[in-house]
Amino acid sequence: MAAKFEVPQGWVLQAYQYALDPTGPQTSMLESHAGGARFAYNTMLRAVKANLGQREAEKSYGIASADLTPSMSWSFQSLRNGFNRLKHQVAVREDGTPWWEENSKEAYANACKNLAAALKNWDESRRGTRKGQRVGFPSFKSKRSARKFAFTTGTIRAEANRHHVTLPKLGTMRVHESTRKLARRLEAGTARILKATVRFERGHWLVSFTCVVARAAQRPAHVKRLAPVVGVDLGVKDLVVAATPDGREVLRVQARKEFKRASRKLRALQRKAARQAGPWDAVTESRREPSNAWLRTQQVIAKQQVRVANQRRDRLHKLTTLLAQSFDVIGTETLAVKNMMASGGARKKGLNRSIADAGLGEFSRQLDYKTTWYRSKRVQADRWYPSSKTCSGCGSVKAKLALSERVYVCDNAECGLVIDRDLNAAINLARLARAEQSACFDSGGADRKSTAPAALVAVKPESSNGSASPKSEAA
Ligand SMILES: [Zn+2]
């Protein structure tokens, strides 16, 4: 694979994910590949650290820069070549037999690629050439780290029978869901697999194929267009509320009952486990052998977690598809997850659990690539735009609006508007999107041409530097 793959015109990146159903020996091989990838990552990280440490020590002895041990290259190629040299000494068993041969070399190469990226991010971050939060020096991967590895070359296929996939070294494996959507595209030549990432998550091995797919960027004919321009508010109580600039509510999606029930059941199970004799004895403050009852509850919890996660994923996809297909221009808040959840957070603390749990970043990312697919457009409000606090009637801005206030009541005596809180915010966002849209057309219609992947316009009145840059790929 070339260093940088350019997505052809009219093609988009899209990922297809399947849960694998490996045989016993295949499970061992999956484990072995994940372990091998971790080993390569840690081996090369250790080498980089040793090199840095050596140079540091030499400097402290006053050795001239020119005479220092040369610094090691952190490029992907150098790290991969480095591992290929080292593996003959380090990736062998005590009796001298090499175990590295048992895994595909791709697993090691991709681990080196990840390490190269992590080092580059850290380096750029410390030099100040990288935006966003400070990136720390890469750390070693422990046995508890995510089990994950990837293939970019070799035999990577979805089999014609729609129920098996083939990966290098691992061979053909059964998958739980039908692969027909991907298989049809591969057969028709409208999709190409670039990469297969395998990871272990919540008790299952999953494979994700990153593909380039030829997609006509347009709305499917059967989908009804609900309105040209809308604002979408991620509600506190409802999932989303969409409204037009003239104040018409066009969409309100509520959290589904099944989902609430499933989440409630999960929390009840977790409380149950807390009452049972787990591995930690709070009385004596020591570890102990957990009871069988506790272990049984853990198994039920794991199953319920998978169920809840699947429901959430499914619903989030349906929601973002609906939004991207039903409207031409969608105004939203800036959904910088880190700003909202990690630091600060107060502004959307009560945000509907089901969206918050699934990750606002994921909502944002899906909306971005789906608006590209369906030729709609997303307009993000400035991070500090007070969509909730602004009155959609008179434009006055409240100083404070508690999350518990479900209804917006305008303080301006002459206006006195009383309106559903989320609807009010959605109307404001719709107007902002409309204003931005007309501004684009006024300035020579430059925007009409930009149907290419980055059809995203961020409204940034006081050009701040920390705007989130969503990935354009699907996952
Ligand atoms: Zn008002």
TrEMBL record:
Listed InterPro entries: Cas12f1-like_TNB (IPR010095), RNA-guided_DNA_endonuclease (IPR053470), Transposase (IPR001959), Transposase_put_HTH (IPR021027)
Domain Probable transposase IS891/IS1136/IS1341: 224-342
Cas12f1-like TNB domain residues: 361-429
GO MF annotation terms: DNA binding; metal ion binding
Stretches of the chain forming a coiled coil according to its record: none
Keyword Glycoprotein among UniProt keywords: no
Domain of life: Bacteria
Keyword terms, alphabetized: DNA recombination, DNA-binding, Metal-binding, Transposition, Zinc
Record has Lyase as a keyword: no
Domain Transposase putative helix-turn-helix: 13-53
Stated family: In the C-terminal section; belongs to the transposase 35 family.
Protein's UniProt name: Rv0922-like protein
Organism: Hoyosella subflava (strain DSM 45089 / JCM 17490 / NBRC 109087 / DQS3-9A1) (Amycolicicoccus subflavus)
